[in-house]
């Protein structure tokens, strides 16, 4: 799948997501300002130690270059001693405060310069007094430790740290902190939006569907707003009649969309001299059966002699859609127990007939790929102008064999949950058998101008 996004697509993505981006960024920035104001400051004390190699008993003895060279070699050794557990233990015992060794690891930092004999001890604490006490104690303890371990007195404390004059208050200004968080949050939000669109693309527009799947889009069915309690109470209360509410006519908007889809399909069918259309989708639950039923109705309303064949032997919906309880149907004919004229039923819509799925077999893929299924379609072409076949989704193998018997295939995509990668991967099954792919229909698409009123 091509994941390239041009400038127009980026603009559409940001235009669609700008409210979320602004909300997240403002929320993060507000939280940063609050935290920076409420967070207690940290106080930092720095003490420099001078390292010499030679023990100078004579105050007038000159410092030799060899002394400096040897002193530099000691720096790394002393640095390790300063960060050792032994040092932490000595400091804790001197302070007499409830420090742990891990506490000191967090509060003490040792800095050195490869070209200098200076070792800097940095202590961070909650108050200036504590920071000064900690760094002074650490330096004195280290001086004593070197004398004990190496019998050397070559550590010189340059200045004792005063909590009043030598300790630095370390707290980032709220404005600066908020600015950093604002920029970071904005960039992170943009990155998340792009990653989501780039790698987890939903086919929620005709442009995306055509760009990714490389097949034309026949139209989009708008999403209906639902009342909060609709899902729980409406269908349970209405039972089978609830299906009628989803069959045309439901609203002028929906009717117009199906008419537009009908016009696009009829144009393609006339170009290819096609009659039999197989309806499939990437996975179960895409709303394919309802779209198939509505499409069959609008075809019949246009004066075309139409038949709806429920070939979805995995999850049959045809009898519920058309409220036709007769269980004799497709599998009855394929099994040889009934003839074609015995399984065709009339519907309430003029020019529209219906074949139910019939008793569900244990091997639906083999049943739909049989020569008798191909013969049935050829017979239906003689009697009807349009044949709408509701097939299982491409998540199972049934529709793949069936697709080679029809004149064209329509791919129904639920824009709410179908990812581009999945839709493209399943569509590839049809391409491998060289099935005649007509195009896509997007189900539950959202547009402020096309959203249906609440049910």
- Could you estimate the helical fraction of the residues in percent? 40-55%
Helix and strand run: HEHHHEEHEEHHEHHEHEHHHEEHHEHEHE
Which overall shape is indicated by the principal axes computed on the Cα atoms?
elongated
Strand content: 15-25%
Amino-to-carboxy terminus distance: 37 Å
Largest sheet: 8 strands, mixed
What's the total helix number?
17
Q: Are there runs of 5+ residues with pLDDT below 50, and where?
A: 225-245, 446-455
What is the mean predicted local confidence, pLDDT?
A: 82
- Structural class determined from secondary elements: alpha/beta
Whole-number radius of gyration? Answer: 39 Å
Give a structural overview.
The chain has 455 residues and is an alpha/beta fold. Mean pLDDT is 82; it is low at 225-245 and 446-455. The strands form two sheets. It has an eight-stranded mixed beta sheet, with helices on both faces. Strands 1, 2, 3, 4 and 5 form a five-stranded antiparallel beta sheet that branches. It is elongated, with a radius of gyration of 39 Å. Helix content is 48%, strand content 16%.
List keywords for this structure.
455 residues; alpha/beta; five-stranded antiparallel sheet; 17 helices; 48% helix; 13 strands; disordered C terminus
Can you summarize this structure?
48% of the residues lie in helices and 16% in strands. It is an alpha/beta fold and 455 residues long.
Write the layout of secondary structure elements.
Blueprint: H1 7-38, E1 42-51, H2 65-82, H3 85-95, H4 101-107, E2 108-112, E3 118-125, H5 128-150, E4 155-157, E5 168-170, H6 174-199, H7 206-213, E6 217-222, H8 230-238, H9 252-272, E7 276-280, H10 288-301, E8 306-310, H11 318-322, H12 330-334, H13 340-343, E9 345-346, E10 352-355, H14 364-368, H15 371-383, E11 386-390, H16 398-402, E12 408-414, H17 420-432, E13 437-445
Parallel strand pairs: 6-13, 7-11, 7-12, 8-10, 8-11, 12-13
Antiparallel strand pairs: 1-3, 1-4, 1-5, 2-3, 9-10
